[in-house]
Amino acid sequence: MDKINLYRQFIQESLIKRAKLRSINDPVQSQLAFDREGDHYQLINLGWKNNNTRIYGCAIHVDIIGDKIWVQHDGTEDAIADELVAKGVPSKDIVLAYHSPYLRQYTEFAVG
């Protein structure tokens, strides 16, 4: 399997695993949005908390651009970038796009 297809598989597995963490009784659902042709992957939370507070938002957004994984947003405690590294993705192939280009140089991950 080539590198990009492997990255696609890792991203999708990670997001599917995280979506399944919610209890079936939780009024907030996790939905997956995979644009496999454009290489855009999202985990979205939506529902109602206490029947009066609307919950809607993107928890994780990851793109594949060129030959790198771009983490556009990660609103979780356990960083998806760390999970991808644990699966075997070199940190030099992951861009933390939610950091400014200037700050990226100070991380173990790619600048861009």
Overview of this structure, please?
InterPro entries: XisI, XisI-like_sf. It comes from Pseudanabaena yagii GIHE-NHR1. This is XisI protein. Pfam families: XisI (PF08869). This protein has helices at 3-19, 80-87, 101-104; strands at 28-35, 40-49, 53-65, 68-74, 94-96. It is an alpha+beta fold. The chain has one domain: 2-Layer Sandwich (TATA-Binding Protein), CATH 3.30.310. A five-stranded mixed β-sheet has the order 1-2-3-4-5, covered by helices on one side. The protein is globular. The chain starts with a helix and ends in an 8-residue tail after the last helix.
Summarize the model shown.
This protein is of the alpha+beta class and 112 residues long. Helix content is 26%, strand content 37%.
Roughly what is the average pLDDT, rounded to an integer?
A: 96
Biggest sheet statistics: 5 strands, mixed
Q: How large a portion of the residues is in β-strands, by DSSP E?
A: 35-45%
CATH-defined topology: TATA-Binding Protein
Order of helices and strands: HEEEEHEH
Helix content: 25-40%
Number of strands: 5
Domain unit count: 1
User: In CATH, what is the homologous superfamily?
Assistant: XisI-like
Shape: globular
The N- and C-terminal alpha carbons lie at a distance of 24 Å
Keywords:
112 residues; TATA-Binding Protein; single chain; 3 helices; 5-stranded mixed beta sheet; alpha+beta
